[in-house]
Amino acid sequence: MSRRKAQQDDKEREGDRPPSLAMAAYRQLYRDITNGTLAPGRKLPVGELHATYGIGFSPMRDALNRLCAEGLVEKREQRGFFVADLNEDVFLQITNARLVLEETALRLSIAAGDVAWGESVILAFYHLSRAARDETSFVLTPEWSAAHREFHFALLAGCGNEWLLGFCRKLYEQSERYRARRRLLSTGLSPGTRSHLQVHEAIMKAALAHDADTASDLLVRHYKESFEIVMNADFELLDNPRRLVPRAASEPEGRRDAV
């Protein structure tokens, strides 16, 4: 892909100009795959997608090929396109990578965070609180999911490293497929699950106080708990489940691998 084409795609993704048909197809398929509307393993016949989304065959194929490159769609020899399956090992890898990268981004963000950054975090938490879900039924609305994403990336936005943020976004969006599947398969929170709003408020307060250790500990704990909730709902847990990496940036010595 040329630099000019990459820049054009970025602008279209951000809504700076009317999207091409291929970009429109990509956005709609991306949304429906990550929110679980198009289930893992589902076949994606181009003709059926054309009828559903009202977008031509050629731009639809372009969108599917782009989603293949991002790991959300698989192209199987002589069988066509399929939504990528969910996989326990892949989800573990995604979660481990998020722990490492997002803790790093959070620590950088807290170290560099200014007044504008703090205000953006407070505003994002306000949006999250207004969209708070029903804790008794685990109903997650699109509004709550959008506010949840806004909050987490407001925390990381002060890190000053667009490459790091880009990798964090990709991992976040990949993990959304697993959370979306959990929402479709399960009702009710497990006993003892803390209020998600309280969890996010605690992370926010620590970050605004520039207490990087506490904020990082809370973020890691939050992601580990989310991982276990999804695993309990959607996968058969192993007798000796693999552990997540315990920390990221706070342990400078030695190499840490997921085990």
From TrEMBL:
Keywords: DNA-binding, Transcription, Transcription regulation. This is FCD domain-containing protein. InterPro entries: GntR_C, TF_FadR/GntR_C, Tscrpt_reg_HTH_GntR, WH-like_DNA-bd_sf, WH_DNA-bd_sf. Residues 19-86 form the HTH gntR-type domain. SUPFAM superfamilies: GntR ligand-binding domain-like, Winged helix' DNA-binding domain. It comes from the Bacteria. SMART domains: FCD (SM00895), HTH_GNTR (SM00345). It holds the Pfam family FCD. The lineage of its organism: Bacteria, Pseudomonadati, Pseudomonadota, Alphaproteobacteria, Hyphomicrobiales. One of its GO terms (molecular function) is DNA-binding transcription factor activity.
